[in-house]
Design a protein that fits this description.
There is one protein chain. With 213 residues, the chain is an all-alpha fold. The protein is 46% helix and 0% strand. It contains 8 helices and no strands. α1 packs across α5. The longest helix has 22 residues, at 117-138.
Amino acid sequence: MLNVLIAGAVLSLRAFASGPEEAPAWIGQGLEAEKGSPEARVQAVPERPRRSDRFDHLIMRHARRNALDPGLVKAIIATESQFTAHCVSPSGALGLMQVMPATGSELGIPEGALLDPEANIRAGTDYLNLLFRAAWRLYGMRGRGFHESPPWLRQRVIAAYHGGPRLLACADWPPKTRDYVGKVLQRLESPVSELRPGSDDAGVYLASKAASQ
């Protein structure tokens, strides 16, 4: 995750997501741009990492706690680290969801814990939840759940996870971020993001998903 945030940005994001104030300056301008402009140029990348179900119970637990689609969380993990718990990027992002130490610290997860799968997924899903809530407020929407968001907004949240919260309101994305969003979306629609039906939580999720189709 390339969202190297300035000190206190997660706290600002949390305050904006839940408070009455206007959008903070770091979100930037550009809300007048067409909502579909960057999304129309996303290209899905036909690349598939090795599949892993080892972390499905943790993905289910923290996705449910944050009202997120566990398939999205798993698709992000596949894209960020290919399910490698001890992955460290050249920029210093850590673990399954490639959380920056500064971001983890502001979310209450110390740097030393970010290579632990559960702590890392907790931090990554907490951050995704904040991005969704900030996006809803930014665009005058209500709700608290992945499936309540239109596709263009979900794509902006994925872009912001990669490139920082400013991209929630950005009229265009850098090429690397556009490529990243395409990879996540491609994996979200592939078997890579499926959860095994071995746990109770996963069974409930798969049953509800099948019923909605």
